[in-house]
Every structure is written in structure tokens, then in C-alpha cells.
Amino acid sequence: MNARIESMSHGDGKVYLQMVLDRMHPDAEVLLDARLKDGIKIPAHLFPFNPLEETSQANYVVVLPHFDVREVDLTFLEYAGESSPLTQSRLTVELNMMRWRTRFNAFVHNELLEQMFDIEREYCSGRMNVYFTDAIEDGDEIVVKMLADMPHAEGSDVMVDFTDGCGIEVDLPVYPLVDEIIPPANYGEGERLRIGFSVRVAAAAKDFCVTVYDANEQIPGGFAYFCDETFGPLGESFSYCAIDASIDSRYGRWFVRHCETLAGLEEQRSHSFAVQPQISLVMPLYPGDECYLSAAMASLSLQTYTHFELVLVDMGANELSLTSALREWEGDERVVHLVPEAELDEGAARLTGLLQSKGEVCAVLEPSVVLAPEALYEYVRRINEVMDKEGIKNSHGVGPCDVVYTNHDSFDRDGGLHTPQFKPVFSPDLLYSYNYLGPLVFLSRRVLEAIQSSVGFSSESFDYDLVLKATAQAERVERIDKVLYHVQNAASISPDADRISSRREEEAFRTGRKVLANHLRRNGIDALVLADVSDRLYTVRYRMPDETPTLSVVVLAGDDASLLDACLSSIEQSVIPRDTPIYVVVNQETSRDVVVYGEHLVRKNRARVIAYQGSNNRAAMANLGFSQSTSDYVLVVDGDVEFADPEALNCMLTHCIREDVGVVGAKTLFADDTIRHAGMMVGPYESASEIGANMPRSARGYLGRLRCASNVSAVSLSAMMVKRAAYDSAKGFDERFQVCNCDVDFCLKVAKEGYLIAYNGGVEAYRKGSDSNGRSALTKKQQLRAEREKAFLHYRWPHLFVDGDPYMSSCLDPRAPYFLLGSVQ
Residue 207 and residue 230: Cα distance in Å, rounded? Predict the structure, then answer.
């Protein structure tokens, strides 16, 4: 046998050799042995090849991992029914020739090159295939997720090996993700097995080769090589998810496409509302604020709604700068210039302005805030819309809209607009994490007077304190989902301005922790407030009341007894009320191991096992578990969940005890420390989807929402604390959602009953099982049912698919649960 290379190329981390093997026995079978120069065996494929080009004599293709080595030795062994080879042929491949040979072939033999690259797909059905699915940058590491696809054969023993970029064996911890059997796609085909797993590699030395093989040699193995070629497109895909709206460079173009037009502004100036309240804007001015003043005053002169007053509280601003900024306003009665006799702190200065103002509506207008021309008009439009909808006539105030806030962004004087803050509807839990409503919030005179006559005002972190008290007193908190003001970036003005701004923010955050703790205490909530200075986030740790509530745990068992045992151990080690009963709902049609394990649990008195008969239906299993318990609160978890901290269940329970909360969900993680679920968003994939899936565990997320507590439309049933009263009000889980969305529908029903759905980013749990329906993936019948259930979700909650998820924003992409910027077109 003679072997020679006709052509060579590389791509996707692999080397492709177009071979000519001749002078062989007619019935011969050829095997390939590939080794490095030091004799280390490496994975390789040898496929028969029928080239499309008539000039080509090639009849085989060799596929190798593109190791960072100079040479690879290939030995072709010819067998013809004998135990020993008839002949063999050796040759050495110089891998450093790959680059220029690939470029030449791409130019001269492009069609042949494509055929060679496609060779593995042609032979994929009868062997193992490995594909990289995700590459996620996490600090100085990369999480690489991959999927092994193969025929499902009883008795096969799937193994995985790794080598580094030079072909040397390395030991990488493997994190299992998916293990499922895929039904035949077409009549006459066999089932396939898919095993998903991931590894973590150092970003500085990321190259590795993964080899998947059958230890019993029933199925030929496969390999894939991770390097710059494979990381590039996968990294771009991850970057697409990681570039949320706050860091999207296209935002300037987006704003131009979505802001009010000149024609629209002209129409606003001539429009008259039924209710036209006077708006008092209180601007405290301290030394150092003069640099902002000209832009702020210019924005006021452009307002299309002009029934406002500006109350300037002058605390020693530079007189010359102030006179210059107010020159155009000289003689305008709408400007009130206050100069307090005594020196006041920032909170007292704001309060002085508010008490001296006359409008039915008040707002603290920071000197750094530049209003969009339509800002005040949009506020008045909203209160008129609400009053008209509520049928309120001849009101002397602003109706039920006691608190109104809007989106904003930042701008550099030399760099344009950036960092948009697209805010959800009123979210108490997010407000307890930081003051997301500000810095500009419109407050009715009624709510200010209610605060003054009851709890009073505080000079510490005045803005945050005022917002907390106002939202507690408000009849209604409204969001205007438009960008209506811009905050001047102090760093783009001067180092002095940046230093003053940073000092104020740090002081406000530091005192804000005390303000939040006092607010919670005032409202009967016993809690400890922690402050993360680096992230500017507060964490509320609720304390257990003196009268400990009753709790039950309902575990929905899957088909893996070992995962179920780890789940129960995690629960037993958690800080929860004594004598908390654990109910394990076991589907009698699941694996025999789980049924036997359930009998073991009963004998050991570790849990009460509830037998469930019927097809796999998590909604029905959860309802069955609830029916057996009588506690005030019920934790529902999947049988493959392990909590990361013994305090996790206690945190979920004490959070759910809060009167306004009905359901609390945890952040669930894959075994490789990437996010599986951080709340759920209604809308993506014409259904609902987990927020932040596959992002690193440490990811802050848009506006900190992956890390902190916030309210969402839904949380996953995988780890859900439920208030019994909320469950009863919602009439439990709808068992018509057999395949998907039973948790989404349940949460939406609970929210409709007036409860909040809370996601607690500080509570983490690992979910180590597969996303599939047991070991088997969805059959075609189940896929069809899933589509019907999606349609049912649309039918039941159509407004969410028209108006969008209220805890997101219409400015964001409704199709992606990653807080991506909406369409720029």
C-alpha cells in the first residue's frame, strides 16, 4: 500500500488531509494510527472520500486535531481478514504548512475544500460526534460547554479524555449537563443518545482536545479541538448575550430613532390637557454644581409643557456662574431663588425647597439632570391617561398617581449618550436593593403632606428615604417607559466635578443602608440590611418572626436516585424550622432505582413518599404534594437540586413571609457555575424563558438584577417557596400545562391575586439533572403538546405578549432574556 497527501487544509480546530491510498488489496480495510513524534497516540478519523473534482485522485480523508506541534506521524494499516496487517504505509505531516496550504486550496479548490470539511457530517450517524455549544468567559477562565451525540446502544460505556494543545493528557473536571435519549427522527432510524457536559479552562491556556469513546468498543469514538478557531464564533455568540443595553455602543442611534420628533414637539406645545397641574422642580445648588447649570437650565427652556416653577435653593453656588446661567430667565416668575440664612446639609436643602414650593407635583431636580424637551409633557400626559381610565373628573390634584418615574441615561459632553437605565414597573424588592427609581421622581403634593404628617422626613440619604416613604404611602406608582432625562457624567466635565459626585454617591449609599433598615422596621419588617459598597447593592436578610411559621418541603423526584439523595441531604442540612416534613413525590412509572430508594426513605423515616400515577406532569405532582401538606409555606424543589448554602431555605422562607410576597425563587446554577435561572421573562421564544441562562454565576447583570433581589413575572418550579394563601388564591397549578410553563402560569395567577413574585439573587441552588423530560427528550407528541401549551399561555395572558413583560421594558429586546437593547431600526 502506498499513501500520499494530495491536499491539506484546516478549520474549526481540525486538520483535513485529502489522501490517495493505492496499491491495496481489493477487499482491504484500512485503519489509521496517528501519533506525535514522542509516540503519544492522538485521536484521528479516516473516512472514504469520493471527490467532486474529476482531476482529484483522492479516495480518503484524514481528520486530526490541530495541535500546536510541528509534526504528526501517520501509519496506515491494511487488513484483509487477517489478524496482522498485510501492509502498512507511514508518512509525516508537517502541521506548520497548514496555513498557506489552506489559503491556496481555498483559492484554487474551494468546492473540493467544502466537500472535505463536510466529510464528518456524512459519516456522523454511526459514530460518536462532539460539538462545542457555548464558550463563556468568566474572569480568567472560560466555561466550555459541549454535546456528545451518538447512537443509543445498550451496553455502551461512554468515556471522555482530554489533552492539552500539545497532545499531552490533562485532567479536567467534567460537569454533567444533559443526558437524554432522542427518539428516532425518521421511520426506520434508531434512537440517539445525547450527553452534554462542560469544563473550565484557563483563558491564557485554553486549547484542549476532547475525545469521547466507548470503553466497550461498540461505537466508534469522536473528538473536537477547542482553540481560537472554535472559540471565536462561540465567544461572539456569548458576547451577544453579555452586551446588555447599558454597554451597547448602538444606544446613541437607538435614542435618535426613539426620541420625540421636532414635529411631535410642536404638537405638544399647542396641546391642552384636561388636568394641567403646576410642577415644582426643586434644584439644590452647592459649590461645585455650577458646571452643570447651563445645560440643565437650557433643557428647562425647551420644555413643551410650561406650567412649572423652578425653586433654586442656593447653598453658596458661585454668584457669577449663577447669574450667567439665569440671565435668560431674568424676570420669569417661574424661577424662585431661595438663599437660606443658615448652612443646610443636602437633605435639609432639598426639604426646604419642597416645603417652599407651590405645585401640585414636586420633584427634586439635580443640577446634573438635563430634561428631554417632552419630559414634563409626558408626565402630565400619563396622569391624564390614568385619570381618564379611572373615570376621575374635575380633580384638583393629580389623581391616584402619587409617584411617577421614568427611564434615563447618561451623557458625556464629548462622547454622547450612553448607559441607559430601562426600569421595570414598580418593584419593591428591587427598590430595597438600590434606589432604581431615581434620580428624578415626581411626587404628588398629597403624598408629601402625608409623609410630613406621619413619619416625617430624614436628612440622611434624603432622596432614597423620600422614595421609600412615598411609595409606601402612594395610592399608585407609575412608570413612564421612555427615556426622558439625561444625567451629565461628572468625569467628562472635570476631575473636581467627578470627585464631588463620587463623594456624594458614596455618602448617599452609606447612609442609605440605615434609611432602608429604618423603613423596614417602620413597616413591621424585622430584617438586617447589608451593603455591598463595590456593587452599590443592598441585601435584605429577613429575620424569622417570634412565632415560627410552619413549613413543608415537596420534592418532585426525577429518575436518578443518587441526585435525589443529594437533594434530600442538602435540605436536611439546611437551617429550617424543626420537624419540617419532607414529601417526596415519586412517579411510579419512573426508574426502578428511584422507587426502591423511596422505599428506603420510608424505612429510614427521612421523608414521606407520595406515589404519583400517570404521565410525567410536574404541575400534577406539585399539586399532589400540596394536597398532602397543611403548612403555611411550601418549598417545591426538583429532585436534582442542591442548595449552595445551609441558610438558603431560611432566606427563602423569611422572604416569603413578607406580607406582599406570594412566591420566592432562587438563582439556580449548572454544575459548572453558570446560571440556569435568574427569574423568568414572558415573551422569548413565543413563550417564556429563564433570565440570564448560561451567564457566569458572578455576573452582575443589567442594573445588578442577576445578583440582587427583584420582582419578576415568574420563577422556576425547580426551587420555589410558596405562601399557602397565595397557592389557594391561585387555585394551584394548572395541570393542563403538562410539558412546559406550569410554573409561569402559576406565578402569573398569583400576581393577579395581588402578590409579588420575588427572585432572590442571593439564594443559590445547583440543579444537576437534565432539562429534559426524565432521561428521554420530548417525543413528537410531547412537542406538539408543548406548542399547544404555548398557545394556551398566549390565550390566558395575551396582554403580556402584546405589551411585553412589565418587569422588563419596551425599550429592551422582547425576544431575549438578557436585557438586550431593542431594535435600533
Answer: 10
Of residues 420 and 29, the one with the higher pLDDT is 420
The Cα–Cα gap between 293 and 296 comes to: 5
Closest by CA position to 801, among listed 678, 684, 679: 684
Distance between CA 786 and CA 687 in Å, rounded?
10
Domain 129-242 has CATH 3.40.190.10: no
CA-wise closest residue to 741 among 809, 680, 810 = 680
- The Cα 25–Cα 21 span in angstroms is 11
Nearest-angstrom CA–CA distance, 485 and 281: 14
For 298, other C-beta atoms within 10 Å of its C-beta total 13
d(CA 173, CA 210): 12
Residue 616: name the closest of 596, 586, 592 by CA: 586
Residue type, 779: T
Our measurement of the distance from residue 516's CA atom to the centroid of its chain's CA atoms, rounded to an integer in Å, reads: 26
pTM above 0.90, yes or no: yes
* Fold of the CATH domain 2-122: Immunoglobulin-like (2.60.40)
Q: Check residues 735 and 604 and name the one with the higher pLDDT.
A: 735
What is the mean pLDDT of the segment spanning 759-777? Answer: 78
User: Residue 104 has what pLDDT?
Assistant: 45
User: Minimum mean pLDDT among 254-258, 363-367, 772-776: which range?
Assistant: 772-776
Q: Has residue 7 got a pLDDT over 90? A: no
Distance in angstroms (rounded) separating the CA atoms of residues 578 and 583: 15
Q: What H or E segment, with its residue span, contains residue 290?
A: helix 290-301
Residue extents of the structural domains in the chain? 2-122, 129-242, 255-541, 549-803
DSSP of 107-134: HH-HHHHHHHHTHHHHT-TTS-EEEEEE
Between CA 689 and CA 279 the distance in angstroms is 41
Q: What architecture (CATH level 2) is domain 549-803? A: Alpha-Beta Complex (3.90)
Distance between start and end Cα atoms, the chain: 62
Average pLDDT, the chain: 91
Q: CATH for 255-541, among 3.40.1160.10, 3.90.550.10, 2.60.120.10, 3.40.50.2300?
A: 3.90.550.10
Reduced to 3 states (helix: H, G, I; strand: E, B; else coil), residue 787 is helix
- Positions of E strands within 588-717: 608-612, 633-638, 641-643, 661-669, 675-677, 680-682, 688-690, 710-711
Residue type, 220: P
How many residues appear in the chain?
A: 825
Residue 84: partners with Cβ closer than 8 Å, 6 or more residues away: none
Q: Parallel, antiparallel, or unpaired: how do β-strands 279-285 and 308-314 relate? A: parallel
Confidence of residue 553 (pLDDT cuts 50, 70, 90): very high
What mean pLDDT is predicted for residues 514-522? 97
Q: How many beta carbons lie within 10 A of that of residue 358, not counting itself?
A: 11
- State the pLDDT at residue 256: 95
Cell output for 95? 502541521
Torsion of CA 306, 311, 316, 322, to 10 degrees: 20
CB-based contact 763:667 (threshold 8 Å): yes
Cis? peptide before 646, omega within 30° of 0:
no
- Write down the residue that cell numbers 457566569 correspond to: 696
Q: Which of 227, 82, 244, 203 lies closest to 822, judged by CA?
A: 244
Nearest-angstrom CA–CA distance, 730 and 54: 71
Q: How far apart are the C-alpha atoms of 95 and 78, rounded to whole Å?
A: 25
User: How far is the CA of 306 from the CAs of 280, 313, 378, in angstroms?
Assistant: 11, 21, 12
Domains 129-242 and 255-541 share a fold: no
For 377-440, strand residue ranges (E) read 401-412, 416-421
**Structural contact between residues 32 and 62, judged by C-beta atoms closer than 8 angstroms:** yes
Q: Which residue has the higher pLDDT, 504 or 241?
A: 504
Neighbour order of strands in the sheet with 71-79 = 29-36, 71-79, 87-94
pLDDT at 776 over 70: no
